[in-house]
Amino acid sequence: MTELRSKQKIAVVGTGVIGASWAAYYLAQGFTVTASDPAEGAEGRLREWVDGFWPALETLGLADGASRDNLSFSSDVADAVTGAVFIQENGPERLEIKRAILAAIEAAAPADAIIATSSSGLLISEAQAGAKHPERIVLGHPFNPPHLIPLVEVLGGTQTSEENVQKALDFYTSVGKRPIRINKEVKGHVANRLQVALWREAFSLVENGVVSVADIDTAISQGPGLRWALLGPFLNLHASGGEGGITHVLEHIGPAQREWARDLGEYPETDDYIGLMASGVDEELEGYDFAETLRTRDRLLIELIGAKKQAPQLP
């Protein structure tokens, strides 16, 4: 498989932070990567980001033959996707731009190549409208940063073939990702919707003076977030019910949870809340070197990801 990968080409179209992270990950998996982005200075920024990501990928473990030397760059999308076995598109979250990029990819991509978009919110059915071969366009939405976080959300639009959805799932699994299959299109997909539900209440609690920004972060990072890093919300809820499991706990606290849910705040309708949240973040980070904070986060993420891989009883 490794020898096969070394002869296979992945195309990464759009090389912002997400695209660069994907490029680094595919390189670490032993593929040849050709990246494309029309922005001035894009290649230099891409190579700087890949260099920055590489130590973490080395810690996680490189495939045989993995090398940053396998990265090439072209400002021409057609050149980048020619001969690619898989294409990861990472363009702006604007429908008209997304469609134009997908059209350019389609014009030159091999007929059997899957075209996966990293879109965090656009509906695939809308993005693939007007495409010549919409059956091979899928959602392949990562969680930031893609070179570290295993999750990828996979979804087909109304014109995507079931075969190609399965091919995308199989591909991401084969390169060490943990893809989930989304069965129905919804705005924001799944993980981002779950995040927004949490942020909605976090914003409300801060706006209403219940708690500070820093204490919200502590409440999650030192509380349920520790459990969520190991098991998801349903399995943690199941564990809370003892022998009766999730059935018992929902029967026991369900009425109270419904009451809490009715009391939850709404997402702010104007931008007035932004200054309050930003000032809270500034206060929380006072005295910290945030770049070093992120490096520490990534180091601990690597340790946690490695530990979970060695724990077969964690789903």
UniProtKB/TrEMBL annotation:
Name of a matching Pfam family: 3HCDH_N
Name by which UniProt lists this protein: 3-hydroxyacyl-CoA dehydrogenase NAD-binding domain-containing protein
Keywords of the record: Oxidoreductase
Organism expressing this protein natively: Arthrobacter methylotrophus
Pathway, per record: Lipid metabolism; butanoate metabolism
Domain 3-hydroxyacyl-CoA dehydrogenase C-terminal: 188-256
Family: Belongs to the 3-hydroxyacyl-CoA dehydrogenase family.
InterPro entries in the cross-refs: 3-OHacyl-CoA_DH_NAD-bd (IPR006176), 3HC_DH_C (IPR006108), 6-PGluconate_DH-like_C_sf (IPR008927), 6PGD_dom2 (IPR013328), NAD(P)-bd_dom_sf (IPR036291)
The keyword Oxidoreductase is assigned to this record: yes
Lineage of the organism: Bacteria, Bacillati, Actinomycetota, Actinomycetes, Micrococcales
3-hydroxyacyl-CoA dehydrogenase NAD binding domain span: 9-184
